[in-house]
Amino acid sequence: MFGNAPALLSGRPRPFDAVLTRAGEIILGKENEIRLALTCLLAGGHLLIEDLPGMGKTTLAQALARLLGLQFSRIQFTSDLLPADITGVSIFDRDKSAFRFLPGPVFAQLVLADEINRATPKTQSALLEAMEEGQVTAEGQTRALPRPFFVIATQNPAHQIGTFPLPESQLDRFLMRIELGYPDRAAERALLTAGSQRAQAEHLPPCFQADDLPALQKEIAAVHTAGPLIDYVQNLIEATRNNPNFQHGLSPRAGLALLAAARAWAWLAGRDMVLPDDVQAVLPAVARHRLRSAQGSGFASLEDIATLMRSVAIP
């Protein structure tokens, strides 16, 4: 059980406190959303941010790339974008009398797929192999992507003109889906007074070395999960499968994603083991885009997830 308080990680790298602080100075009033986004990246996952235009989605991605010292690439998804525009193409080199591959913008450590649902499903599918395998196969040859490799995709609400729904196979490749929402009055007043934060995000100094991230992710993956905690996660997953409010339940891969996110959330809090509170903190971001409401084609609401958590006993 969880009677004893978990030990704090005294050796936890302090730069991540600076990352959260500096990002909070750019994306005002969204501390929890920033922490979820950083949790997703530390867990080795990809992030989907869905909201109305002008909410700071792109700015958040740029800020995280700068603060984590990641090589950054932005792809503007449009209806005429082709898969080769993402993965790259081969051109004929006259001097060598041979074709030479020109890597596309997906060959970066953090790729911003901006307004991903404005491209056709064929173009969206160009990211599937990259997100799942960390590689790109083009013209019969497989090429590894840089390490670490993250995709942050922004998405406009599906009801807006000119959007294509993401297939469920691609949605499942995003560890988390978050929404920024409108800022509160104080944060919006500060934004209106200071002006656009985009320029500040482009000039943020790095707080961390990207080359250190893979080893750090292994440390986070080793954060302890006790037997009762595994039981709790399994009970949550089973509850989604037996819940008439959902068309279908969470998959085993979703359960692994939930545990990975909970470990990263606990690690950011300075703890060496996962608590039920950590699971509950990340569950909405991990589960909502994987669960469809039985009442229609929409995804699970926050109230659906809250009801789910209340239905499962905490160990």
User: DSSP helix count?
Assistant: 14
The proportion of strand residues reads: 5-15%
Portion of residues in helices?
Answer: 40-55%
Multimeric status of the protein: single chain
What spatial order of strands do you see in the largest sheet?
Answer: 2-5-8-1-9
Q: Report mean pLDDT, rounded to a whole number.
A: 86
Order of helices and strands: HHEHEHEEEHHEEEHEHHHHHHH
The description of the largest β-sheet is:
5 strands, parallel
Low-confidence stretches: none
Cα gyration radius (Å): 20 Å
Structural class: alpha/beta
**Annotation, overall tally of beta strands:** 9
Q: How does the overall form come out from the CA principal axes?
A: globular
Our measurement of the CA-to-CA distance between the termini, rounded to an integer number of angstroms, reads: 7 Å
Can you put this structure into words, describing what you see?
The protein has 315 residues and is of the alpha/beta class. 42% of the residues lie in helices and 14% in strands. The protein contains 14 helices and 9 strands. It has helices at residues 15-26, 31-42, 57-67, 83-87, 121-124, 128-133, 168-171, 185-194, 198-202, 213-221, 227-241, 252-268, 276-287, 302-311; strands at 47-50, 72-76, 88-93, 98-103, 110-114, 135-138, 141-144, 150-155, 176-178. The strands form 3 sheets. Strands 2-5-8-1-9 form a 5-stranded parallel sheet. It has a two-stranded antiparallel sheet with strand order 3-4. Strands 6-7 form a two-stranded antiparallel ribbon. A hairpin with a 4-residue loop joins strand 3 (88-93) and strand 4 (98-103). Helix 12 packs across helix 13. The radius of gyration is 20 Å and the shape is globular. The relative contact order is 0.17.
